Protein: Transport permease protein
Amino acid sequence: MEGIIAIWQRDIKKFFRDRARLLGSFSMPILFLLIFGGGLSGTMETMMSSGMGDGSNGFNYVEFVFPGIVAMTLLMTAIFSAMSVIEDKNFGYMKEILVSPISRVSIAVGKMLGAATVSTIQGMILFLLIPFLGLSYSIISLIQVIPFMFLLGAALSGVGLLFASMIKSTQGFQLIVQIIVMPMIFLSGALFPINNMPSWLDVIVKFNPVTYGVDVMKKIMIDVDGLSQAVRETMGLNLTVFGRSVSVFEEILFILAFAVVFVAIATISFKRAHA
Structure:
């Protein structure tokens, strides 16, 4: 546990000391928030009000997309945090850890916890934008979503650790991860509804862990019950698998299972790479 905590604390300290990383990581989420939130909000809200009459119940598209932006921040931060493994190998720090009594499993778990913590902190910092965006999430819902943010960050960090254990250069890691991250974002319902996807894309959507993460965050943060059935169906707030609606509990179980499986696979890969 001492080894895990030491690696965990080191990654958190590195994050706060790297101001460029702290500020730069917000550029992409804020850009997407401005483009999709500002650019599409008028169109989506007009479509809702004209197509459903009073059934839109004051639907706010920015309120719909904000949980997706937070989930996108978790995804990008958790996966890219694993790049520190490659940097540690290149700078020789990893050799110092490997000759210590710390097990390979402890190193991987420490890195996973560090990535999950950093991604959760960055997601929470985005909450500071809520008053400026004119949104009205309750304090209770924001508190309730934080533990799930940590779980989702831990699950996604396993993906980053898996690739970091197999790739030797930061350039190669960034290239491969970008190819993976962008489809995970666009096929998750973070930015637009995914309920009318082609059948072959729908399969990818249902296997995408970010899909369930985004859906859980929306159900916790947004008053879904206050929206009409038509709005929920149009905006994809009724996620179904094999024609059956998925509950929040089932989605959390899926994320938990994904976290366990990928962290385990990443640990095995890490152990083989540094045997």
